Amino acid sequence: MQADARRTRLLDLVRSRGFASLPELAQELEVSESTVRRDVEMLEEAGSARRTHGGVFYTGPSPNLPHFELRHEMQWSKKRQIAKAAAQLIEEGDTVILDGGSTTYELAQMLVGRTLQIVTNSLPVANLFMASTTTELILLGGYVHNATGVSLGPYANEMISRLSARRAVLSVAGITQQGLYNSNLLLVETERAMMKAGGEVIIVADSTKFGRQSLAQMCELSEVDKLVVDHEISEAWQTQVQDAGVDLIVAPAEMSIIDRPVSHKAS
To answer: Which of 155, 136, 216, 152 lies closest to 180, judged by CA?
Structure first.
């Protein structure tokens, strides 16, 4: 098998399973584990996979859902910046609630392989962690919205009301002076329940969301603990967020692994 074809097959195996061990990949591809390791290194450089203890996780493109296709290409760079900064707020051993937003999905990819408890209503997010040996996964049930792959409605809300997490990381469709918004009434109800279950509420939103209103208000700005945004947020909005008592974290345009996000704590 040619190298390119072998790597494509390797990626297909990891994508379909979420996680695959090195020995089983070597057996499936009929090559040595050292060859698999070299192939995985190339896939890691491309951002398609991540090697961890005992195997390989899929961390490639977002799922083939309208929710991701419409947003991912336009603001992908900003979402990656925000996700990198938000990942540094999550500590080992945390219980973290993640919703099904495209920026939250970028964050979830960066949390693969870490020692965490993940609570989510998102099937795409859950798929990233389902085979992890280091992450405990709690998947909320309910009506599944076909455009986003998230569970909504009374069953999801009841289940989340019985749980408690250290942090809840949520995405929004719009932010105005009146508060934070999303475009689905059922989603907003579930996210309100997530906020109540989370000890700390972190919002991840790119700068295009500011000044935009959507169908349903999720909460007032002052109800949020931290807001992570890309570097294109205006000074006026930075001031407004801080005046609301929110810890604003502005992700730099380019951030290496050792870079830290700039944090502006409101007085």
So the answer is: 216
